Each structure stands twice: as structure tokens, then as C-alpha cells.
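Lab meeting, action items carried over

1. Structure of the three-component assembly. Owner: GW. Status: complete.
Input record:
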Amino acid sequence: MLPGLARLAAGPVAIMECRQNIPCNPCADACPRGAIRPFDDINDCPELDMDRCNGCGACLACCPGLAIFVVDYTYSPDRVLVKIPYEFSPDPQAGYRVEALDRSGRTVGMAEVINVQVYKNKTRVLGLAVPEAIALEVRHIRQLRKGSSHE
Amino acid sequence: MRITNHPILAFPEREKVLFIFDGETLEGFSGEPIVAALHAAGVRVLRHSLRHKRPRGLFCAIGNCSSCLMTVDGLPNVRVCTEPLQAGMKVETQKGRGEVL
Amino acid sequence: MKTDIAIIGAGPAGLVAALHAARAGARVLLLERFPYLGGQLIKQTHKFFGSRSEYAGERGVDIAGRLIGEVNAADRVTVWEDSAALGYYPDGVLTVRHQGEFRTILPGKLIVATGAAEKSLVFPNNDLPGIYGAGAVQTLMNVYGVLPGKRLLMVGAGNIGVIVAYQLLQAGVEVAAIIEAGPAVGCYQVHAAKVERCGVPIYTSHTVKHAQGGSSLEGVVICRLDSDWRPVAGTEKEFAVDGMCLAVGLSPLTELLWQAGCKMCYVPELGGNIPLRDDDLLTSHPDIYVAGDVAGIEEASTAMVEGKIAGLAAALASGDPAADLRPELTAAKAQLRALRAGPLSAKIRKGLAKVTKSALAEVV
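Predicted assembly:
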């Protein structure tokens, strides 16, 4: 379920793209605020209490399917902060401009890397500032080649 | 080609050794399967089939399929996907069934 | 040499079986044909699914490290690496080639956890160097740190194909496409999503028409299949690739079970010929248990729980376990049922129904 406009405007929130009944439930354990309902059956899809969720990203970093994202519409007047999981080398650096890709790997715009968190489990969480128009589409990045005039 | 930069895995430094492949000196890591050293050096053709002389290479990498048989230090039919590399080894593209005697 | 329980195979199923059997008080001999433990688990760089008891969220390679550490530290577990089981005989003797020497073992019970091997696919030039089983690509990259090629085509969109495609991208290899003969991918949606967002196209209803190359692979031509699985003329697509990965299914490695006389049954849903068993994972041979992919192709998480069941059941049957393990065994069976309860396990449940008989009811 996508958060409604009012919730998006209120602050960071997780978006879960896990819609298949597979045996998996570590997100519920990962949430420090109990915002993900404990699973009755391990094959259930996660249910997020969006009012409890503060978009901290703990579930994002743990999800084995890399299927959770965080959006913060309060980041700035025209840009949204999108957090995505990332497991490729090299790590981008804060300040980099990168291509923002959608779910099919198509470039939908440019993003500025705001921060890179490296979790203990080696998943990186990238904080990307993107134009509001593509905030709900960005799922991956493509780093520009070294020496490119864009860098 | 060897992986130098990996987001999850670290490949520890190992002892480099020299070995001979079809008369050419190559480098590998002591104890890794011979086929890993060959692949790192760009060698993927390991032998030729008996009748039609078709090139053959690595398939399963765990010793099940017999695609990777080569002659090592004179001994034929060695599965190079599991045989550990040692310094000075003589590895040859196997010709036919090889000679055991 | 005598032992209470001999376990053949130190992959996830065998490692967990060894831990539980030893904790139950049995003397365990764990045999592994390779010089390293962990089976296919050590090549899995992705985070595992399941629940906390199956180490969900941990990477396969880290779970393997943890289990191997526990096994090496365990009392009552003797580990023999570089040791291939050769045969199991009517007098209860297990023969082993242990680091080059021929040895005979007399185990009270045997747990066969030998796993599975890649299937191949038939098409012209399928023997060219550069065409690998998916597991081989994982082994090259994740164990030996060597690249299998610069640009690969993945055949098969089950979990293995899509996971290995992702691992190729992580190693810096280009993946030209993933093709799948079936009308839909067999992998979890989230695995497909991970590679699609990297721009890797997935072509369903497509198969390999032929591979081409001189001394090694240089290209692959694919074509679409119609609803009768027949190639459609004019739909050919060519990819210039120097590697191809076949992730078209696994076959259980059951030679030892056949040789020991276990009753087997052909179950396509589970990968081929697999042993009949009860819900303690005891085969038709009163001393042989099975666990993991050898009992039917499934997942690492189910392999680990099956290892627990077989380890506990074999220890119970060896007589005189350290504590009453029946509640733990019952709980493990419930854990396994829960993992298999979802809609994606329907095929697995169907296959298992063909080979599982209920154990004789115990007199309370």
C-alpha cells in the first residue's frame, strides 16, 4: 500500500514492495518501533502501520529481497529524499550526481547522493535527493563514468 | 581476470606460484583449483573431444561432469576444477584419452 | 572405526544434522568429499529469507561460517574433509576414501546429505567452453574470485538463475539477458525486481536455439516458444556473449541411496529420482536418513530444518539420547511445514506427497 498524500507530507515513511506470499519475515523483527505487524504466518506479506513508521530504514537495510524503500517529502521544497538499498562496488560518495533508474532500469532523471550508510550486514543505504516527479519511481542508480564532464 | 573489488566478499591475499601450461609460464595462487588459475589467465579451452576434436572447457566446477579433464604432471584425466595448484606444476591440454603408461 | 551416526555431506543439511545429533549425545562422523565444508552455502552472497530460526537476513556465506565454526567446536563431532563415501553395504559397513586412504566405518545410523548437481540443456554447440552450470559460475566468482567472462546470458529464471545473474552484476560482469522457457518466471518476484532495476531484460517463453563460437563461446541465438512449447520461426534474437549460464534445474545426487538399496521414486516436481521416506526422514532402509536437496530439490532453509529433523531422529533411534528430544523434533517438523505452507510451495507439497509415508504410529 502506498502512503497517502497526507502521510507523505508528514515526514519519512517506508514503502514496501513485497507483494508475494513467500516464507520471509525478518522485517517485522528489524523495526525498532513495532510498526510492522508481527506475522501470523511466515508466508504473509508485511503490514506497515504508517503512523508508527518514522522512515528510519532499519527494515530497508535488513530486507533480503531489497524490496523496501523510504521517501521523505519534507526534505526540501522541490526535492524528495529517497533511500534505496545498494549492493554494488564502488560505493558512490556523498555529493555525486548519478542517474536515477526506475524499476525497469530506465533512466528517469538525475539524483544527488546525500549520504551512504554501510550497514553491518554490508547492505548500503543510499540517501538520494531527486525531483519530486520521480520520487516514487527511483529504485536504483547508475554511476557516471570517471572523467565524464558530468562528475 | 580476477575480481578486485566486490561489494560483499573479500578475497584474501594468497601465495603466488608459477606453473607451466602447454609450455607457457603462468601465475596462480597456491592451492586454488588449477582451472581457476587458467581462467584468470584467460585460458578456457581445456581439452578436445575424442572423435570430433571439439573444444571443451569447465562446466560444473565441482568434479561431477568430467568436462575439465587435463593432463597434470604427466597424469591424464585430472579434474582440474578440483585439483589444487602447486608451484611448478606442468598442466597440458589433454590429447585424446591421454597416456597412462 | 565405529560411530553412532555418520553424515555424508557437510552442506547446510549435513552441518545442522551434525550439530543436533551431537547435542543429543550421539558420536558423529561428518564426511565431506571436498577440502572445505559448507557445500553450496558458502557461495550464497545474498541475504536469506525464512524466519529468525533459519537465519533470515543473514548472508548464506555468513551462515555457513557460523555453522562451520559451531561444528568444529562441537564435542562428539569428528570432521573428515577430503573424504568421499564410496559405498554402504548390507553388513552396515560404510567405505570411505579418507584423504587418499581406504577406510571402513561402522555407523549405527547414516544420514545422507549429498545435495544435487546441475542439469544441462540440449542445443547445438552446448559443449562450447564458456557455457557453464549456474553453480559453476557461483563457484568461480564467489569462492575463487575469478570472472567467468565479460558478458553472459543466463538461461533459466528460477531463483538460482536470477540470484546468480545478480551476483554476476555484483562481480562486474555484464548480463545481456535472462531467458526462461516457461510463460512466467519461477523465481520470487523480489529476485526478479532486483535484476530488472539494473536494466537486465527477462525474456519469458524463450529458449536457446543454438550457441556459436570457434574455440569458445562467442554468441547465442534465442527464439520464442509458442503455447505448445514449439519454436516460432522469425523470432530469433542474437546476443554477442562470451559466457552462458545454464540454471535449468538440479538433480539429486542419489548414487549412494541406490547402491544401499533404498526404495526410490521418480518425482519431477522435486528434481528426479528421490528416496521414499517418512516424516522423520527415514528411508526404506531402517538405518538410513536423508536431508537436503538429495531428498528433493528445494531451498537452503528447508535443507537446514531437514538436517535438524534427521539429526534428532537418528540420535533418538540410536537409543539413549541426552534428553527427551521428542518435543524438539515435533517443533522442527512444524517449522518445516510452515516454510512449505505458502502458495509457491504447492509443487513441492505435491511432490512430497508421492514419497512421504507416515511413520508407524507410536504407542503412547
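2. GW to write a short summary for the group page. Key points so far: Residues 360-364 of chain C have pLDDT under 50 and may be disordered. Residues 108 and 154 of chain C are 44 Å apart (CA to CA).
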